[in-house]
Amino acid sequence: MDERKQGPVTREALFAVMQAYKNTSLLRTGIELGVFPLLTEPASAETVAVAAGAEPRGMRILLNALAALKLVEARDHRYWLAPGVDDLLIPSRPGYVGDMIHVFASDFEWDALKRLPEAVRKGGTVMDQHAETPEYSYWEDFAAYAPIVAKPTAQVLADALSPWAGDRTNLDVLDMASGHGVYGATVAQRFPQARVWALDWANVLPFAQEQAEHAGVGDRLSLIAGDMFEVPLGGPYDVVLITNVLHHFSPERATELLTRARSVLKPDGRLGLVGFTTTDAPPGEEPAAHLFSVLMLAWTSEGEVHSEATYGEMLQRAGFGPAVRHAVPGLPFRVLTAAPV
């Protein structure tokens, strides 16, 4: 039985894939030069160039290319934002997402992906510094710029914990690999009885502290600096959060971390996980997860996006019951909650 369903790949489609990096480069350049806030009203390339500190010819070529991507409109040598762009790419707007270019298109990732053929041959990263390097400076950029996409997921996580956590007198929370601190801060906001211990490398923890202060829960945050596989965890805790990090490791290594979490969790506590997962669906139906696995191949020793079945096996080996799965509207992440057995 022939299971092939999609039509033939065209030359045009293949060429579009080949030069997709150019689109990313154009968007990153527009954001870095501060072009988009200068186009809320029609303006010439010369006017924009002066305001951005650029050369007029270079700005004209950039603006025409951004117009070709339909991010900018152009007519009679004047340029302005395409509909919807003002809400997304002007920093003063609440829906601004431009800073995510520092995460999605960082030099750290680009440098690793340039060596993807070597990583495929080896079966893991060939970079001297990568996602598992202690105090890797990329995580500072991630912590600074990624909260915009973490906040909706953090709300789903808090909602998932709410029926169980709402009536507890105390709620001690360990936020492992806390990064920007959005998950711990959101839980502390939702539950006034919560106190959070954020664990990460020393160079990242100031971002978690800043996030907690911004959320009004800084007085309920404590910091634990070090390697989450080795540093004393304290506890016991009512909740342990492990967010967007298990895909950095093999199932065996991830199970080791889950087992550590189980060892400091109260018998009636809860585990909260956030990350990509895959199912039995074809990769074309879950593109974000499978493309993210490529980054893990280039950027970690043994990491990849794990399937829901693999998560179930890891949780069972670490001493947890079956996970409850919660979708995040509009984002490819999954929230999983589980209780110890």
From TrEMBL:
It comes from the Bacteria. Keywords: Methyltransferase, S-adenosyl-L-methionine, Transferase. Residues 17-79 form the O-methyltransferase dimerisation domain. Pfam families: Dimerisation, Methyltransf_2. GO terms for molecular function: O-methyltransferase activity; protein dimerization activity. PROSITE patterns: SAM_OMT_II. Residues 173-320 form the O-methyltransferase C-terminal domain. One of its GO terms (biological process) is methylation. InterPro entries: COMT-like (IPR016461), COMT_C (IPR001077), COMT_dimerisation (IPR012967), SAM-dependent_MTases_sf (IPR029063), WH-like_DNA-bd_sf (IPR036388), WH_DNA-bd_sf (IPR036390). PANTHER family: O-METHYLTRANSFERASE CICE (PTHR43712:SF2), PUTATIVE (AFU_ORTHOLOGUE AFUA_4G14580)-RELATED (PTHR43712). This is Methyltransferase. It comes from Nonomuraea aridisoli. The lineage of its organism: Bacteria, Bacillati, Actinomycetota, Actinomycetes, Streptosporangiales.
